[in-house]
């Protein structure tokens, strides 16, 4: 679906100054003209490295980004995360050909998916994200019958899909995942290539030729593509199964026996309004235009736009989390100052748990609680604070009258301020 920059091989982004290229070449040990855009990360013995690559590098980097996104918005579903990846990923560089803008205006590539993930843009999107509609599943079955093909030739069939319109439980007008199930017989499976073309002209390269794959029982498998993300599934889908071996090579003869599509996506929007979350530079509704190859000039415009967007990311500060931290800190200071009474410390710990959403407490401040639960918490807070006040007054006994008066005024002022802050905080939770 997307990629992460690691220490692997990346084409050098443009522009890269001669000084930068020479510096990176010296550090990475490759020739200056072959210098790659490598990700610097930590290494053993307190050193840095440019050579940490592969899934061992990409997986934790991506996981870290997703963790930040979920911290910004814990209510996101797995589908929301995938939508955010699609909407915020960036073209890594302008030197890589093969980029396509699909029918929903998302740029996509067979090697890079929707691009390189951008953690800051993902977090920014997550903070204002609206959960995507319920996922629907629509099955479209091709009824073309068996289609033979030989070396150097193809079996091409079409399927006209309606996106299960008329079936409210399964209707789709905006795609996410597309599964292609097919059964093909062939004496040398590695000679087969498969492509799927959507009604908008987006071509998904389902299977490449594999010269060393000599399996003789063909294919009975379900493939998946996300390259049609956001497109409307209604229209003619085309499958192309090709034997890339020369004609009469090994006596190849294959047959495409059957195929079907399982479409995953969201239900019709009803009023046809554009989804404001979709970040595209077109006035057309997503999924209603033809796919197109991106030229170098078009890629440069996209990259410039995405770089400006990345430079202007606005990540809102979580005031509620910050306020909870401040109150917890004040409670800790108050607890240290008031004394060593275990009963009072226990009550303050309970109060702190109520305010900061401790795991042992059924209340979760990140979710909207019912008014009954809020009232219950308010009562608990009042009881704790009243008990706290009484304990403080009890500890004043035995002091001189002058000190009792000074401490009483001081403690009452601080405690009343604390109670007011707590009540204000609970009012915000209630909203």
Automatic annotation (TrEMBL):
UniProt-listed PROSITE patterns: P_HOMO_B, SUBTILASE, SUBTILASE_SER
The biological processes this protein is annotated with in GO are: protein processing
Q: Name one Pfam family in it.
A: Peptidase_S8
- Could you cite one Gene Ontology molecular function of this protein? serine-type endopeptidase activity
Residue ranges of domain P/Homo B in the record: 131-269
Keyword DNA repair present in the record's keywords: the answer is no
Alphabetical list of SUPFAM superfamilies matching this protein: Galactose-binding domain-like, Subtilisin-like
The reply to whether DNA-binding figures as a keyword in the UniProt entry is: no
- List UniProt keywords, sorted A-Z: Cleavage on pair of basic residues, Disulfide bond, Glycoprotein, Hydrolase, Protease, Serine protease, Signal, Zymogen
Q: Which family does it belong to?
A: Belongs to the peptidase S8 family.
Can you name this protein?
P/Homo B domain-containing protein
């Amino acid at each position: 679906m997307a990629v992460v920059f690691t220490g692997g091989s990346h084409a050098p982004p443009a522009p890269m100054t001669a000084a930068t290229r020479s510096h990176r070449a010296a550090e990475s040990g490759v020739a200056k003209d072959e210098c790659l855009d490598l990700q610097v990360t930590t290494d053993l013995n307190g050193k840095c490295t440019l050579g940490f690559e592969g899934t061992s590098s990409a997986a934790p980097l991506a996981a870290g980004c997703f963790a930040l996104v979920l911290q910004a918005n814990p209510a996101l579903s797995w589908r929301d995360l995938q939508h955010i990846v699609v909407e915020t990923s960036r073209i890594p560089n302008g030197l890589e050909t093969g980029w396509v803008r699909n029918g929903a205006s998302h740029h996509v590539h067979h090697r890079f998916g929707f691009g390189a993930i951008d953690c800051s843009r993902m977090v920014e999107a997550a903070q204002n994200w609206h959960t995507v509609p319920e996922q629907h599943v629509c099955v479209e079955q091709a009824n073309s019958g068996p289609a033979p093909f030989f070396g150097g030739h193809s079996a091409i069939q079409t399927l006209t899909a309606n996106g299960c319109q008329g079936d409210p439980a399964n209707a789709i007008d905006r795609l996410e995942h597309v599964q292609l199930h097919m059964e093909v017989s062939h004496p040398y499976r590695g000679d087969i290539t498969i492509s799927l073309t959507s009604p908008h002209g987006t071509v998904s390269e389902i299977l490449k030729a594999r010269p060393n794959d000599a399996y003789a029982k063909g294919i009975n498998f379900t493939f998946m593509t996300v390259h049609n993300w956001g497109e409307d599934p209604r229209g003619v889908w085309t499958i192309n199964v090709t034997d890339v071996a020369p004609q009469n090579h090994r006596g190849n003869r294959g047959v495409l026996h059957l195929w079907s599509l399982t479409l995953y996506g969201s239900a019709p929007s009803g009023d046809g309004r554009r989804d404001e979350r979709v970040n595209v530079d077109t006035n057309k509704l997503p999924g209603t235009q033809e796919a197109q190859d991106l030229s170098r000039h078009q890629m440069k415009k996209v990259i410039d736009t995405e770089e400006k967007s990345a430079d202007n990311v606005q990540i809102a500060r979580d005031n509620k989390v910050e306020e909870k931290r401040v109150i917890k800190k004040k409670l800790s200071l108050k607890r240290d100052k008031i004394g060593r009474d275990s009963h009072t410390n226990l009550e303050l710990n309970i109060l702190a748990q109520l305010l900061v959403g401790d795991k042992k407490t059924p209340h979760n401040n990140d979710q909207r609680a019912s008014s009954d639960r809020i009232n219950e918490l308010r009562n608990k807070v009042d009881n704790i604070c009243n008990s706290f006040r009484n304990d403080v007054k009890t500890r004043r006994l035995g002091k001189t009258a002058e000190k009792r008066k000074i401490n009483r005024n001081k403690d009452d002022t601080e405690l009343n301020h604390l109670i007011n802050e707590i009540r204000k905080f609970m009012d915000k939770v209630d909203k």
